[in-house]
TrEMBL record:
<dbReference type="Pfam" id="PF13692">
    <property type="entry name" value="Glyco_trans_1_4"/>
</dbReference>
<protein>
    <submittedName>
        <fullName>Glycosyltransferase involved in cell wall biosynthesis</fullName>
    </submittedName>
</protein>
<feature type="domain" description="Glycosyltransferase subfamily 4-like N-terminal">
    <location>
        <begin position="14"/>
        <end position="155"/>
    </location>
</feature>
<dbReference type="Pfam" id="PF13439">
    <property type="entry name" value="Glyco_transf_4"/>
</dbReference>
<dbReference type="InterPro" id="IPR028098">
    <property type="entry name" value="Glyco_trans_4-like_N"/>
</dbReference>
Length: 359
């Protein structure tokens, strides 16, 4: 099958980029011809190393740029005889929709950021993939027909991005609590600061590590500096690979207010962390609804502090939740994601063509 993924860019900054890159590389390993059209970025070299041709399509939301994007996409589809177009963001879907209609090619859309109002436009797809059950339910409420909506739970274990990464744990001050993610309000970092302030009063040896960057980094650093626990909080900043920090951490925390299906939980579970996550969006599903990680209400620093304290009271509890993180972890393999996505593709292709592709 000849597959064209279209997304706004291939920079490391966004989770949807990681998911699209992981999927594209996994599809190549399954024997398919894959192309990625975007404005380019950090992952282009990795894509090319995996036999994926990268193509240029502007995603600027201005009429002249959109017209050029439409013409470019039409040209690529014709030149490479594309069977499936897979759009990963709203602008990508809007660009792809008329060309796919004109050329009678199925358009698959993946809803990565369901919390955005524009996610409704992902319903333009012939098939719409939701990255978790909660996202699927939300898209049904937005009017996407159940007949064309499929849930393919995010997973990233075994991805090409992980090849050659360091397996050496970072040496962290123990007991260590780790957050990895973008520094903006949706991730609930201020809640974590407030919870850690409470925790630190009883567990003065605990240390909090913040890995990641974002528009609120300086604001969060100033807020942390006012806390009595300030000396026990380390801002690591952005890193190419946070996995060694996960390997070295005792507890991984994701206190998000909204998070459709964060890939970082796959990585934290793979690293064997004891995990605490907020019970919002796709987080419970990725944590086996509390069997593979502890769940706390979002926007509730007191509940988060209580759960962290419960773990820190006993190293045996942390060890127990480390073991529990491995429960049914095979569900988070990228190969499973790729195979389920291909099933969605086949369901969207006219029967005669599907038979031809299978033979």
């Amino acid at each position: 099958m000849r597959i064209l993924h279209i997304l706004n860019h291939t920079r490391r900054l966004n989770g949807h980029v990681h998911a699209a890159v992981d999927l594209a590389c996994a599809q190549v390993r399954l024997g398919h011809q894959v192309y990625v059209a975007s404005e380019g970025g950090d992952f282009d070299a990795l894509l090319q190393a995996n036999g994926i041709q990268t193509l240029l399509i502007s995603h600027k939301r201005k009429a002249p740029s959109l017209i050029k994007a439409l013409l470019a996409l039409s040209s690529y589809i014709k030149k490479f005889n594309i069977d499936i177009v897979h759009a990963h963001m709203m602008t990508s879907a809007v660009i792809a929709f008329p060309i796919c209609k004109l050329r009678r090619i199925p358009l698959i859309t993946t809803v990565h950021n369901e919390f955005e109002k524009s996610a409704t436009l992902m319903g333009l797809g012939t098939r719409v993939i939701a990255v978790s059950d909660v996202v699927g339910a939300s898209m049904r409420r937005r009017g996407v027909a159940p007949s064309k909506l499929k849930v393919v739970l995010n997973g990233t274990i075994g991805s090409s991005r992980a090849e050659g990464r360091s397996e050496e744990p970072k040496v962290l001050r123990s007991p260590s609590i780790l957050f990895v993610g973008g520094l903006h309000p949706r991730k609930g970092v201020p809640d974590l600061f407030n919870a850690f302030e409470t925790v630190h009063r009883s567990f003065s040896s605990a240390h909090l590590y913040i890995v990641g960057d974002g528009p609120f980094r300086e604001e969060y650093k100033k807020a942390a500096a006012t806390l009595q626990s300030a000396s026990a909080i380390t801002f690591v900043g952005s890193t190419r690979d946070p996995y060694p920090y996960m390997l070295g951490a005792d507890i991984f925390v994701l206190p998000s207010h909204a998070d459709p299906a964060p890939l970082v939980l796959s990585e934290a579970r793979e690293a064997g962390c004891a995990i605490v996550g907020s019970s919002v969006d796709g987080i419970p599903q990725l944590l086996e609804h509390g069997e593979a990680g502890l769940l706390v209400p979002p926007n509730d620093p007191d509940a988060l502090a209580e759960t962290l304290s419960h773990l820190l009271e006993s190293p045996d509890r942390i060890a127990d939740w480390r073991r529990k993180s491995q429960l049914r972890i095979e569900r988070l393999m990228i190969e499973r994601v790729a195979k389920e996505t291909l099933e969605v593709y086949h369901s969207a292709i006219p029967r005669a063509k599907a038979v031809a592709l299978a033979t």
